[in-house]
Amino acid sequence: RRYRGGARIGADCQIYPQVYIGDGVTVGDGTILYPGVRFTRVLIGSRCILHAGAVIGADGFGFIPNAAGGFDKIPQLGNVVVEDDVEIGANTCIDRAKTDSTISAGGVKLDNLIQIGHNVQIGENTFSAQTGIAGTSKVGHNCFLAGQVGIADHVTIGDRVCIGSKSGLDKDVPDGEVRFGYPALPGMQYHRASAIFKNLPDLATPREQAEKEIAALKEK
User: Fold this and answer.
1) pTM strictly above 0.90
2) Nearest 5 degrees, angle CA 201-CA 204-CA 207?
3) Fewest 10 Å CB contacts: which of 105, 131, 185, 193?
4) Closest CA to 34 of 9, 48, 21, 53
C-alpha cells in the first residue's frame, strides 16, 4: 500500500495507535509497530519489531561553531536503514545520517533507551542493552554490548566483540576481543587492575608505616 508522502507499507503488518509514518518511509512485510513509534526517511525491513516510543530517523546531532559564538545546524540529508528481523526497544532513538545511511543490519536486537548516532553502522546479529553510540562509529557482527556502554564517535568495533557493563570506548577494538571498564581495557588486564584497586586501602597502611620508619632512621 502507498500512503501520503510516498510511504509504503508491506503485507501483514501490525500498526498500533499513535504510530507516525512520515515521508519516504518503507515498511517490509510482517513488521510490528507498537504504540507511539515515530519515523521519517526510514527503510524498515520485514519481520521487524519496534516497541512503544521508538523514534527512528530524527535529525543527527550535528552542529558547527559560528562567528557569534553559537552553533549552526548541519543539515542531516541521509536516512536510516533497518534490515530484516531487527527488534528495537521502547524509547530507543536512531538518528538519520548526515549523508548516506545509519544502518542496523539484519538480526540486530536493541534494548530500551538506546541512542544510535548519525551514520552509525551496526553489523548483523549484534545484541545491545542500554547503550549510547556516537556518530560515525561502526560495530561489527555478532557483538554483545552490555548495559550503559558508551562508544565515542569514529570508533570501529570489530566482529564478535564483547563489552562489559558501563564500559567507555574511545579507541578501536579488534575482532573477538573483550573489554571492560572506563576507559575500557582488555578483559584480563581489567581484572588484574581491578584486583589491585580493591586492595589499595590495605596496601596504603603498610606503605605509610614503612615511610615513617625510613624517615625515623634518616633522622638517627
Assistant:
1) no
2) 160
3) 193
4) 53
